[in-house]
Structure formats: structure tokens, C-alpha cells
Task: structure prediction
Amino acid sequence: MKIRIATENDLDDIFILSDQINTIHHRNAPNVFSMPDGSERDRIFWFDNLSKENSVFFVFESAGKVKGFITAKITENTEITFLVRKKVCRIGTIIVADAFQRKGIGKAMMQKTEQWALDSGADEIRLEVLAFNNDAHDFYDSIGFETQSRILSKSIA
Result:
């Protein structure tokens, strides 16, 4: 299993995978996620994520093609005085191509990211998962994540 740092050469495959996850999210939460439109807007977003400070962008490669990726960054509360000050690794996006799911790739990418987080001095890993995404809930439960909070929303317009 080859998991490595993403490069600019991976952007076409990353773009395809991001459309996969964005389509699912749009279908289930159209008030939050726009429909993928193949525009440069998304390509620029992923390009910018390749080199952000205190961040990592890993890809899973199979037969020379990216079939999964994960992004993460380290943050630290320095402003809210009543919160414990600690470094937190925040997972941005994780996606595995449909044909490669349930083969341990997501788990391996999470383990690689956890090691990166430890090496970066993080104390914990956090992520947000949408309520409709039961497969993701099951996956995160299986690798030891617990619900810490809930994000609620209410449309007012």
C-alpha cells in the first residue's frame, strides 16, 4: 500500500475524487454543498492545500493513480482563555475511490496522519462528519473516534 505526500502531478486524480465526495455531499446537503461543476475554482482550492503551513496532504496510490487522499492541519488554541491549550490535528477531507473502499485504505491513511500529528506535537485528532454520512460514522467509530460535540444549524432565509 503506497501512501505518500501529494504533489502537483496528482491534481487531476485529486480533482476526480473531490468531485466524488462533493457529489455525495451535495446530494445529501444541497443547502451546504454546491454541485461540482468542473471549474477551476475547485482545482485552485486543492492546489492551495498542497503546501499550507502546519498541514499535510497524503495520497493513496495504486497503479500510478491516486485512489484516495486525506488532508489535515495542526491548530492550537491561543485565544480562548477558558479552553485547554493544546495542539489539535484537524482532518479536513478524507476520501477513498468507491472501488477501493473497505480494503483498509482509509484506516491506513488515518494511521499515517496520526503518526504525522504525533510527530508534529499534536495531542488529539478531530474531524467533522455530516449527520447523513452513516458509513463515515461507522468507519470513525471502528478506529476509535468518539463524539465530542455536535454542530447544529438552522436555515433562516
